[in-house]
Specification:
Helix 6 packs across helix 7, helix 7 packs across helix 10 and helix 9 packs across helix 10. The chain is of the alpha/beta class and 270 residues long. The N and C termini lie far apart (43 Å). It has two domains: 155 residues, P-loop containing nucleotide triphosphate hydrolases (Rossmann fold), CATH 3.40.50.300; 80 residues, Conserved Hypothetical Protein Ylqf, Chain: A, domain 2 (Orthogonal Bundle), CATH 1.10.1580.
Length: 270
Amino acid sequence: MTSPGGIVLASWGQVWNLVSRADIVLHVLDARDPISTLSRRLINIIEKKNKKLIIVINKADLVPRSVAEEWKEYFEEQGYTAVYIAASKHMGTLKLRRAIKRTAPVLPVVVAVVGYPKVGKSSIINALKGRHSASTSPYPGSPGYTRHFQLYRVDSKILMIDTPGIIPVEGDEVEKLIRGYPPEKLEDPVRPAIILIEKILKYNPNAFLHAYGIETQDPVKILEEIAVRRGWFYKITKEPLIEEAARAIIRDYHDGKIRFYIRPPTALSK
């Protein structure tokens, strides 16, 4: 199944098939905003198929360790096994392997990796396997979904399905837009970029000061200033080309250049 923006997604039928073939499903979340990258529909499928679930909080290098710990505790309080890692930096891979073996109903165990676009599924496959063999891409738009499931051996006790399940984004409007489409395919990148900027500023008022040296808190002015600094102008009107600045913001967010994070609800009430 292909989204309007060209991202190749697993259909929910394929997700059912993927989950059916696995003993354990790793549901990969973005540590900066785990709730917005959590798929309730996927969890329901895992529970209906009576499979084991591990919540993998990835990109933990982009948040303070205390926050990653808070999210781990939050999901454990919900009854889930949870691990936080930074797969692209091979941090926490050993912890994840141990969690898989502890959770395994049988050994060797078959594991599937599932989540929204750009949460780092392929990086986790690469990190677990130990060599760079699963395809990766810096932005949404190119990951594929193979027609046939193939297993490869992580070690003597862990087998992994080589296909990361890239599932449709639910819930959060801005996540649907920025994860569901490559930045260059967005017809109107300004609207999702403004929503994203507002969301980031809510949790880190200094995010754009630190990322770009921009002091204003006005989303449109932030886009204008980035466009001016980078020499992006409309040819005829000479106005700042904020569409290109909007795409840059979305790319920089995916790359972790704009720092922000959300704490779990339980932590906020303490």
